[in-house]
Amino acid sequence: MKKLSIFAATVLTAFMLSGCGAGTGSSIASGTSTTSTTNTSAAGGLAAVGSSLLSGSTGSLLGGSTGSSLLGTLMSSLLGNTTTQNSIIGTWVYSKPKIAFESESILAQLGSTIASNKLESSLDTQFKKLGFTAGKTAFTFQQDGSCTMTLGSRSIPGTYTYNSKTGQMTIKGTLGLTNITAYVSVMGSEMYVLFDADKLLNVMSAVSSVTKVSTLNSLISNYNGIKIGWTLTKK
Question: Which of 7, 12, 91, 115 has a CB 3.0–4.6 Å from the CB of 140, allowing a cystine?
Fold first, then answer.
């Protein structure tokens, strides 16, 4: 009976140890605190996200609809995506605002969920006032280099060129402007059109009144180190 009791105790002990998991056992044995790895600072966590984006991992891109509402996207990740002129051809309908951080350090400083969501929500309100309505504003790019911007009942023709190496598109003749320069990237069924703040204001000034654009100017002047523009969805 004594031998059986010793055997049973040994089996029970082995079972309990296996249930705790090797990872926990290793932490205890090495004297490492598991809480130290989980209590990462917010800034450090954002920097880590930025590093994974800069590494070019497609799975880490925050350009989708969910990621966009959380942290935006690093410009380097957008421009690292291969976008050709052929992928631009077609009609793209305005969906929502889009912001992109110019560097990993800016992402760490401004890339909190609250900051990104607040800015995109405010931009959405301002864009609607300026005539950019989801599903009603559209851009059509033809193979021959011609393009058309549809804004409400207006259809405004122009021409465009796209440099796949720099990710820059130049549109001429639209809205009475000499040219419009933007960073353009296509990912799946979405196109991102991003501007420097002053370039975006030029476009919006041509669309609507100076008074309404001044409100937009006041909003975006509070944010440095980001590109601002639109998410378009292929029709």
Answer: 91
